[in-house]
Amino acid sequence: MRTGGIWIGPPWIEPPPDEPVVVVDPGRAFGTGAHPTTRATIEALARLDRGSVLDAGCGSGVTSVAAVRLGFAPVTAVDLDEVAVAVAAETAQRNDIRIDVFQADVLRDELPHVDVVVTNIELAVVERLLDRVPAAVAVTSGYFADDAPRSASWTPVDRLEIEGWAADVLVARH
Asked: According to the model, what pLDDT value does residue 38 have?
């Protein structure tokens, strides 16, 4: 499939020769790139100014790798699940790119200061994360189109909806 100008597919399908590619093995962790929330998240990222990224709840690492392919750097990927951390590292290696991947609880552990935080997790966790993440811009997803994150610290500036799911772009209020 294609989203945000990037082809995303499994290792057994030959990617197109002349476009950015993310190869992901749809195995042990969430995130093949096909889910509407992942597609909307990557599409929203493609619209933003480039800078540093934190992928909070990285799953398979598909969004982290897509961020690098889109020109974001440095990219840090974190997940609470140790299997997801291992899979994200494998996805980065398979795509011959560098991302920093480590295990962390996005609601408790210290998070790096970044230009953009990306998170594709359940709405209640998104809202709690927004209250503590050190970023200027947030791309959030993981919820239906009739939901939206609420936070006094952030202003919504863009929204994408795909097949009944949503991704929002928010900017931090200073």
From this structure: 86
